[in-house]
Each structure stands twice: as C-alpha cells, then as structure tokens.
Amino acid sequence: MSASSQSRTEAPLRSGTAARAGLLVVASVVVIVLASVGGLVLGSRNIPVATVLDAIFSYDAGNNEHLVVIGSRLPRTILGLVVGAALGLAGALMQSITRNPLADPGLLGVNAGASAAVVIAIAYLGVTSVGGYLWFALAGAAVASVGVYMLGSAHRSAATPARMALAGAAVATAITALTSMVLISNEAAFNQFRFWAVGSLQGRGGDVIVTVLPFIAIGIVLSLLLIRPLNAIALGEDVAKGLGARTGPARAGSAVAVILLAGAATAAAGPLGFVGLAAPHIVRGVVGPDLRLLLPCVLVVAPAFLLLADVLGRVVTAPGDLQTGIAVAVLGGPLFVALVRSRRVASL
C-alpha cells in the first residue's frame, strides 16, 4: 500500500478543506431557504409571506390562496429538494465509478429506459396520470441500467469506465430510437409524453413524493455506505484491489444506488438535465474529489441548485411559469461551461 493511497482513503480531512465544505453547506442551506420561500410566494399570482405562513400553520380549505400554497407550491418545493438531492448524488456516483467527469444519470440509460416505459404506458396501457407514470418509469430505468451493466461486463470482462460508457451510449441510442418510433405513430401519446419529457416539478402532488421517497432514501443510505470503497476505486482498479477494496460489489452497489436515485427522480419529475452533472462539479471545485466530503455536500448543493433554477424560471417568465427542465438548462448550461473552463476543475 503506497503512502499516497493510504492518505487518500484513511487520512483525516484537512482543516482547510473541511472549513470550505462547511461554508459551502451553509451557503447552500441559505439558498435553499430563500428559494423555498420564493417558491411558496412567487408564481402566476404572488402570495404574501404572511398568507403563506397562515396556510402552513392554520390551513383553511376554503381559502383559495391556502389551496395554492398547500396543494401546489409546497409539494413542488419538497419534490425539488428530494429530486435535487437524488439527481446530484446519482451524478456524483456515476462520475466516480466511471471515472468520467462528464457522466450523469443518463449514462446508464436511466433517462432512456424511463422514457420508453412512460411511452409504452401512455400509448398501449392508457396511463394518463403522473402517479401512473411513476412505476413504469422506475421499472424502465432499472431494466435499462441492468442491461447496460450486463453488456458492459459481458464475456467475463471487467466493467471498465470505457466499456460502461460505450454500453450506455449504445443502449440509450437503441431505446431512444424505439421510443421515437412509437411517438411518431401515436399522436395522442406524443402530446401527453412531451409534458413529462421536458422535466417539471409542477403538478406533482404529495402522493408522488410519498411514492418515490423510500427508493431515494435507500439510495442515499447505500451511497454513503460505499464512500470508502469508491474512494479507493477512484485511484484505479489495481490500486483499489491492493488496498483491499472489493471493487465488484462496490460497483454493483453503486449501480443499484444510481438506479434507485435517478430512476425515482426521473419517474417523478421527468428527465432533468444538468443537476447530476453540474452539482458534483461545483462541490468538487470547492472541496476536492474526496467522497467523504463530496457526497454529503452534493446532498445539499444539488437541491439548492434545482430550487434556485425553478424559482428563477418563474421570476423571468412572470406571470407565466417556465418548465423546470428548461430553467435548469438555461441556468446550468453557462454555469457548467464556466466550471469546465476553470483551471481548478480542469485539473481534477
């Protein structure tokens, strides 16, 4: 075992790095609080903060403003927190196990599998509600991800980052082509699917949150349990084995966690891009690649990023309401370009 390997996996965290992580978490919590308040207040019709508080603590079903806050805006905010944390953590895991800084949940075919399952549910089974999409999208994401993993490790070969990336691209392309064929031949399915496919937190009730929360909670716990072996794998396959890490079970566990996290999040809100890609880079640029700090910080930074984009989308298009997926792309695109062009991130 080399000294550098031991320091990477077992050494105590440097005080300066830990301090930066603490400041990042505090800043993210502030953004979450402000964005949550903005999410409850702002919309097609602005509602005073006093009325929002009154709706939360003294709900009156006969009050239209209370109905908007409790029935629409509060679930939207909570779902943003849950989905943001899930997508950010899934992206960080993908970037870690594939050693690909541009990896996101779509690399394992999650988005493609979920989309295909939703299309099938709409076109052939008559499913029209968001709650009905959930189970199909989650199952489709799981099947596609398992298929990618099996293809990437076929013929007893190791599931290397390159093989996984190629397998994911191949499976996603094939599934997307089949999905497009169904949509082209079924106009009704296309009209329903396009609202889900753009990605949105709007129109999801508490039942959606309750359905996906157990999957996301299990995925978060599993991810945090895998921090030590994943830190070793990040040093390379041979070094990880030399450190005693069981790389096979760690990769399989990470794949399961990604399926649970990204599959449930995609099922609930549609395929939201940039969250799982940009949030880990933001954190990595501040605290470095050590997963002991990276993963916990991502759990706070990613929902802050998603909620901020959602609120800014409402502000920019007021009194309209920009779809969350579009708002995330508008905010995340320039931010991600700036991140990857920075010297600090480029050197990671």
From TrEMBL:
Pfam families: FecCD (PF01032)
Topology class, membrane: Multi-pass membrane protein
CDD domains: TM_ABC_iron-siderophores_like
Matches recorded under InterPro entries: ABC_BtuC-like, ABC_transptr_permease_BtuC
Gene3D superfamilies the record matches: ABC transporter involved in vitamin B12 uptake, BtuC
Transmembrane regions listed in the UniProt entry: 21-42, 77-94, 106-127, 133-152, 164-185, 205-227, 255-279, 291-312, 324-342
Alphabetically ordered keywords of this record: Cell membrane, Membrane, Transmembrane, Transmembrane helix, Transport
GO terms under biological process: siderophore-iron import into cell
Domain of life according to the entry: Bacteria
Annotated localization: Cell membrane
SUPFAM superfamilies found in the cross-reference section: ABC transporter involved in vitamin B12 uptake, BtuC (SSF81345)
GO CC terms in record: plasma membrane
Gene Ontology MF term list: transmembrane transporter activity
Family: Belongs to the binding-protein-dependent transport system permease family. FecCD subfamily.
Protein name per Swiss-Prot or TrEMBL: Putative iron-siderophore ABC transporter permease protein
Source organism of the structure: Rhodococcus erythropolis (strain PR4 / NBRC 100887)
